[in-house]
Write a structure and sequence with these properties.
This protein has 117 residues and is α+β, with helices and mostly antiparallel strands. Helix content is 16%, strand content 43%. The N and C termini lie far apart (35 Å).
Amino acid sequence: MAGSQPAGSGRLLVRDGRGHRLLPVERIHVFVAREGEVYAVTEDKEFMVDYTLAELEDRLASGFTRANRSDLVSITHVEKFVMEGGGSARLLLATGAEVRVSRRRAGEVKQRLERLL
């Protein structure tokens, strides 16, 4: 399906039951890769998507940041950045969910968030 969704589009095609639906990107808090599948996580539901995290990262680069191998986080839904021991960090989302930030990506994620100020 790569290439079927316009770059910079405000909606993303996701699986919904036996079909697909267009989900507004601003509703997505995080994309999670789990057991070979990628899910768009909203405040109240998860939707399977037909894209890899790398494809989503390319398409949604301005509004999302890669926290680790498995999570691509919406910058607008981040409420707090917390440094941890060993150079890693955590992101606290508006929903109360936490996302671990790898040591390798912690500096980059912090810089992305600082640029929003």
